Amino acid sequence: MSSWREEKNQKAHARLEKRLSEHFPSCVLSHALRQPLIPPTQRRAMESYWRHRPLLADRLARALAAKSGQPAGWQWRLGSGKDEGLPMSFRLPPSPYREGAFSRGPGHCCVCGQPVYRLGWNRDLWGDGTPNKNASWHAACVVAWQLWTAPTDHLRMLKLRQSRKCAATGRRLLRTAEVDHRVPLFAVWSQYRAKPWPELLAFWGAPNLQVINRAAHVEKCAEEAAQRSERRIVVLSSKERTVGSA
To answer: From which domain of life does this come (predicted)?
Structure first.
């Protein structure tokens, strides 16, 4: 197996070096050459680089979104399935540049709105001067979106960030530990949806993600359910008083 891998890596390394462009990011190349199986193309090397750095991708994606800013006239709304680009649930992060009315078109990232350059990079390192018209995602934003929508897939990385300590109890994380949003997403929708769009993304990103042991997670979920129930009762009572006074 080791000889097979060595031979495969030699071929992949030769192929990568042959097609390597002058301004290819050195950090990505260093990462590629450290992998057990060297990616044979620049694009696969770029994808591997960001796939191994989801927290960095999250930070970059939110920074690019802040650079783009919230489009004029946009509001966070939920769709019914017929609305182009609108999320069906508040559990999906708001994404104005995925909506037809605010899309910036080919060559711009549908997540952050910034231009996409060669190989999905966020800067024009090659000096082409124009975005890649065949691209609609940054390589980093792909990974950031995966973190936002499926944080459990990045459980290992999130555990390492916390030094394998439960964020709720401070005890050692168990195998059954789970990813949790510090501020639950239902609360983001009900209480914070008027915030500027770039700030909203932090509720899906690393600042709002934590890993806690299952027992602590169950207890937290029960408390949140009780709070939602109390809030629903207050809203219904307020409506009944309004109808009664009318």
So the answer is: Bacteria
